[in-house]
Amino acid sequence: MVAGTIAKWSSDMSVGVLVLDEEHRFLIEEMNSLHAIKKMKSQDTLENCLGRLICFAIKHFFHEESYMAKMRYSRMPAHKVAHDDFIVKMQSFLRRGADEDVTVLSVEIVEYLDEWCAQHILVEDRRYALEADSRSGQDRMWGGGRSR
Ligand SMILES: [Fe+2]
Ligand SMILES: [Fe+2]
Predict the structure, then answer these.
(1) CA–CA separation, 25 and 129 (whole Å)
(2) pLDDT tens digits along 56-108
(3) What is the CATH number of the domain that holds 50?
(4) Closest-approaching ligand to the CA atom of 80
(5) Which ligand is nearest to the CA of 78?
(6) Ligand nearest to the CA of 127
(7) Which domain of life is it from (predicted)?
(8) Tens digit of pLDDT for each residue in 22-35?
């Protein structure tokens, strides 16, 4: 983690699909906004940031799952469960934000996002990219090519 942030997108995180890379970039920016909440102490800001993150994550997961379905990704069922669990967890944070201390809750949220970014974006999302790479002769879909 870069000081004061969850992460910073870099080409090491590329999944080889431009639209998904751009979404990961934006997702990480949204996560970093939540990191800043720790200083803001505002319930409204927490709810707004969480709401935006949930909406964008749902859209990104839909795109990613469509891509994985098209490439017939071998680990798609487990990957989809991880996406669904993330949304459920974010929604529970949103509910808890209504009556819990924002500064305490935001620490828990940032720890969860930090771990999720490291385990999901950096490991699980890269797995479908590696599987796509390993299949010789299969054309990349959705405007593939490494982002730089
Ligand atoms: Fe994913
Ligand atoms: Fe992703």
Answers:
(1) 16
(2) 999 999 999 999 999 999 999 999 999 999 999 999 999 998 889 888 888 89
(3) 1.20.120.50
(4) 1
(5) 1
(6) 1
(7) Bacteria
(8) 999 999 998 888 87
